Amino acid sequence: MIGHASAKVMVQATGVRKSFGALEVLKGINLSLSNGQVMCLLGQSGSGKSTFLRCINHLERIDHGRIRVDGELIGYKEGNGYLQEMHEHEIARQRIHIGMVFQHFNLFPHMTVLQNVIEGPIGVKRERRQDVTERAHAILKRVGLAEKVNAYPRQLSGGQQQRVAIARALAMRPKLILFDEPTSALDPELVSDVLDVMRDLAESGMTMIVVTHEIAFAREVADHVVFMGGGEIIEQGKPADVLGSPSHPQTQAFLAKVLV
Amino acid sequence: MSASKTGLEGSGGDPTIDLVIRPARHPWRWVAMAFVALLAAMLVQTLFTNPRFEWSVVGEYYTSQTILLGVRRTLELTAIAMVMGISLGVVLAVMRLSPNPVLSGASWLFVWFFRGSPLLVQLLLWYNLSALFPNISLGIPFIGPDFVQLDANALITPYIAAILGLGLNEAAYSAEIIRAGIISIDHGQTEAAQSIGMSRGRLLRRVVLPQAMRVIIPPLGNDTINMLKMSALVSIIAVPELLFAAQTIYTRTFETIPLLMVAVIWYLIIVSILSVIQYYIERHYARGGSRSLPPTPLQSIRRFFGLSRGRLLEADGKRSAS
Hints:
The complex is a heterodimer of chains A (about 260) and B (about 325). Chain A is an alpha/beta fold. Helices cover about 35% and strands about 25% of the residues of chain A. In chain A, the strands form three sheets. In chain A, strands 8-9-10-3-11-12 form a six-stranded mixed β-sheet, with helices on both faces. By secondary structure, chain B is mostly helical. Chain B has a two-stranded antiparallel ribbon with strand order 1-2. Classes of the chains: A alpha/beta (about 260), B mainly alpha (about 325). Chains A and B meet through helix 2, strand 8, helix 3 and helix 5 of A and helix 9 and helix 10 of B.
């Protein structure tokens, strides 16, 4: 379906449905993403793209369908003829491999930048403090925050905070990182710093799923673009096709609005 | 004061441009100050001239053995009851927020009972527990053999009754305070912690509780101060704390007012010390909460007296500019 047929599938969603009360927000999502690729999810607010993203690491429970990450079923265990819902600690173990970056950063405000980054590897993965600290310094240097190691999140700009959040996700050495509108809460002049870091990550071969409104970023970085509307996938394919010559009227209308 | 005198080039010929800025005037502050000073003077006068205060008696008993033992007992009771109350309060708060309806219901019931009945009644109930359960035994309920048999009368001493009464009552109140602190933390914090695979327990210990402390500490400090004073209630079940100690002396000597003064002075001293400690604990947990820490009382006093108004204005300007 996507490019390299030889690369293994990292994310596979089959018939994913999800309702909040009577409102069905996901109406059967099917998609797959190969290892090392970048997927951008586009669409109007309320189209279900953030909800779908949050289903991938089971922050939202799905009602129907299956999500597999690196072959492993998320949130459920296959029994003999039934699916067993996982315990919280089993889900937590799965989340170790799936990084996530949030719209509002969600850094831990009582910890310094370094403490934010090393908390997961030390506290959850039980790695050696010295190794993790060295790695954290390298990652923070990579996202351009080498000199902010000991600052507290509130002393940083939004763009800096979001880069710390990316560093926090990276320090866990995830197989996949989910980005939930990572630049939507930023002042316009800070957006490019964050996008640069994400572009760098994409080039280094990180598998990423990005919910975004940054069409230019999607066109340039994504291997695969998915356009969602009303809880369904309306159109998907290579960015040049979906963004260059959209076939569905809803996609055309959306792009006409954001590409003024 | 000279700072604002530097003229600007290209001022457009505004004639006020070179005028010195004077701070706003507050004449009513002086009126209020005079009024308060008058009341204070009256209070001081009566303290010094009313012979019935018998300050010499106060001085005599102030550091007497009985009173000092009472002070120690009061501090002990406060400390034990607060430690017990807060520890149990954390457990109750977590139970109450648990998705398990049995745990949540049990916690609710506990709080309902211990917050819903007067502390004085609870103390009397614990004190008279042996009337209800003459023997307390440890064993397998309903069927089994008892491993330990205890005489309730010997087990529930006045001191134990006081600790149970104060501690369990405090648990109910601090549970509500801690629960409020926990739910005040943004859900995004929970999601971020979950996204790096944190367990529920670690999320609570490392992320939620440290942040909730900022909300929890001020009312818990308040509770501690309250507990110190409420511990005087246990004088009713003859625990020799500070008030009881004062009472034992004045029932013998009839110097009621001076001995109550002794107790009041001790309570005030301890509460003042606790207030200072509370302030610094709050300051500690304010870390990361704002860009700069609030000043210590000493710093504010120095700022109030030490700096000229002009420099204060300047400092304020700098702060709001950053």
